[in-house]
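To: structure subgroup
Subject: Chain for Friday's discussion

All,

I'm putting the inputs and outputs inline so they're searchable in the archive.
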Amino acid sequence: MNQAPSIDHIGNRGIWFNNAFCTNAICTPARASILTGKYSHRNNVYTLGDVIDQTEQPIRPQYLRRTGYQTAVVRR
């Protein structure tokens, strides 16, 4: 198992969701919901080709960066 003390620290000070569900069947809208914390009808990402308008709504990694965390997207 990977060690992630910073993420564990965040989790220990917040809430763990052990039984969470995604309301989107399509990958891009599902990821947009996770990143924005909003349903698709609020973040305007409905299809695989849509993108998050970050000028209209911040995403969670932006909040993390402001507090000193480094964030990244890793693709395989």
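Points worth raising on Friday:
Residues 23-76 form one domain.
DSSP finds four helices and no strands in the chain.

D.
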